[in-house]
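Course assignment 3, question 2. Fill in each field.
Student: A.L.
Task: Predict the tertiary structure for the chain below.
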Amino acid sequence: MAAVLRWFLAVAALAAPALPPAARAQATDARNRALIILDASKSMNEDAGNGGTRLDAAKQAVHELLDRLPPGARVGLRVYGSKVSQASRAEGCRDTALAIPVGPLDKGAMRSAVDGLNGTGRTPIGRSLLAAPGDLGTAPGRRTVVLISDGGDNCAPPDPCKAARRVAQQGLQMSISVVGLQVTPRVRRQLRCIARAGGGSYVDVQDAGKLGDELAAALARAFRSYEPTGTKITGGPTPQRALALGTGLFLDSIATEQTRYYAVDVPRGKRLVTSATAVPPRGMQGSGNFNVELTDAAGDNVDLDASGVSAADGPSGSTVPLSVRTEGLVGGTLPAGRYVLKVAVQNRGGTLDPVPIPVEIAIQLLGPGEDPGVARVPGKLATPTPTPKDKPAGEDASGDEGGVSWPVYAGVGLGGIAMGLAAAAVLGRRRRL
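Answer field:
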């Protein structure tokens, strides 16, 4: 259950030494609260591939998390599928309970509650999400939910994506991030939908041993004011003049009705995972669209992601991560070569303020069997490629090669989450999709 955020991930840090660079923060806000929603359904008893079950991995991850949380952190635990077995569907789908109320952290109580879990029942994710606002309360401060699951909701209604949207709309400082543990493609789609509707990040984890790190990343932002970080860049104005990036974390700034392009050279045998996180400036008004698109070396669309953007409370508040990727290794059905990432902020009805929006760009190149994680290391620009104006006389100047636009502005991000949360970074909670 460690994170992809996919963007993700945008996160906040726990203890200072445990803070990933992508989640550097300002002063701790004692009012902030977090709720972990943990899957303890029957499927969590399955082998995690590391000598234990998925539930064993989750328990270990929570133990690791408790060692990193700052003193006095207000954290609670809700568990579903932990009590009702061999019962009717209706009864099994009511099996969600607040195991540890949200309040100053009692590490002993949290450890005991987690260690006592046995994978038993169904997966009522939607019902658990709808209970989260009551668990977190209405006092001022950021409220963060981190859902950890190895499966999709099998109790709808309520639909988990609709439930997440209802929860997130209850406040600008309410967000839901998700960590998927060894999930199938179908489940991944549902969990990503929950994270997107909840204004948080999604992280995909196949290696159960990495769960502790990713859970910590996903929770970090709950207790700190978010401070964007990464290598400062300015993307290219056209696909032909896309800024060539290496791997790591980058920061740009994109104004309304502006599109930026970034190029990544992907060799055979690698998989490209990218994420973009937008953070609206404090006081921004109106609504628009935040779009991310990936094309391959042949110019064909590989993946796209989009979300609404609206007024928000700035870098100390919410973010919205988007992620695009190649599903398989390059060199099979996908050509090796230069892939281009397109990131755009579009107005909607002429209402969105024409102000620059910080955007974090995370780039990962993964080999066979490697899982996405939270991008924590500042990125490096790729070796500059001559632009058409730089080419010697007589050489083709069609503009097919990507140029370099040197860094000028810091954006923001997420990491992860998150695939992380992770990471990983995303705009306001009042999103108009």
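Instructor remarks: The longest strand covers residues 337-347. The longest helix spans residues 54-66.
Grade: pending
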